[in-house]
Amino acid sequence: MTPVTALAGDSLVQSVDWLTIAPPTLTAVVALVVLVADLFVPEEHKRFLGLTAIGGLVAALALLVPLRAGDRSTFCLTADTGVGACSYTADHFTLVIQLLVLGGALLTALLSLTETRERLPAGEFWFLLLASAAGAALLPASRDLATLVVALEVASLPAFALVGLKRGDRRSGEAALKFFLSSVTATAVTLLGVSFVYAATGTLHLTELAQRLDDVPGQLQTLAEAGVALTLVGFAFKTAAVPFHFWVPDTYVGAPLPVAAYLSVVGKAVGFTGLILVTVVAFPSYADVWGPALAVLAALTMTAGNVAALRQVSTRAWSAVRLLAWSSVAQAGYLLVPIAAAAYSSDDQIGATVAYALMYAVVNLGAFAVVALVARRHPGNRVADYRGLYATSPATALAFGFFLLNLAGLPPGIIGLFAKVTVFSAAVDAGLGWLAVVMAVNVVIALYYYLRWTALLFRAPEGAVEEAPAGAPVPHTAPVSITLAIALTAAAGVVLSGYPQFALRFAANSLF
Q: What is the predicted pLDDT for the residue at 44?
């Protein structure tokens, strides 16, 4: 541990443990290396930038292994009393989310290798992806509001550019603008809330906030309550909870497919991680405020997402990506349930959200990998284009069907079923019976469009294959990187279905 600084006239000493911060730091360093290398690497060798990015993400994942004990902290202020507050903590919660984030970024990188060779500027793409992943990996370790907001913006700002990276594509630019405006609004609201909380308590460290909010002077009580409410509203934007979900469908459709996959998993993980930290760790004394609010948001979000998806699946020309976008909104509602339940129960309910997030990350990235593959032959990428996929590509159709059944929570998607049961149990155990009923109804609604899409894969092909635009070849072979992404996610889904305890144990053990 190396001393960094000491405040004059104060007993506080800050220290840094470089191994603890290695995963996000290495990711950021590789991002800078790729950015500089792009200036010197000839156009015909740009693919090496992608391989460098993938190697950096693999190395960052490997650096999680020495931290597996989950007992390290750094950037700590330690007083004479021996009571310290740390800005960065690598506990089990941090490591699981970092595994999800860096793994999601790695699979996104595999999906992007072909895109960067054919459609996207390689140097800019790899730098932006790695920079966003570095911020996303920093966020779960943040234990003060300043670091939390900085990490949130480091993860979000490059994502705006990634969405609008399809040059000359009007939809891409529109999607980036809509995403930017909604996210900036969320950030402004969050910063206002953070400033109110700081003014009322005099601290930014989450653990100290939890103590001081219990004893806020009467004249500052309203300010503290307003700060808590505004901070929660800001993170509700980031999680795409209703009514702050309006940017999701257009953003996913306009973004490059790998970026849409990244936002659906890593972007969502960032929002939910921040929400967990500010509610369960920083604001437990205001559980009577954020608990009912999140329960209502969960019910509205899952219902709005499923009803919208249900309405779109019957439209022949509707985009498969738009359907997955509405599905992701509905899944966000399920992810909110255990966080809301944590306000009503002394048991650790957050593990249910983590277990569900792990399942969702694997199968949703797999689904987007198949969509990216189908889009190479069907540029329109309509739901109807998946009819007869089994006849032309049996392995891909079986993998896609498996992913959809996991999202629906049906066998053989055992991990999807168990994850939904875990979330349902969290609501029941917390006494939120009405929310459990709403969730059960929504699961039944979702069965219709997931099963209908699955059945479409095994029907006889109809008509001729959609032709690509004039002058553009229609590929008939699957790129190795996309095939590898499908294989990895399918294998992970099968392993988790055969050994669901790997994910579900987080629902039983304390993460903080």
A: 75
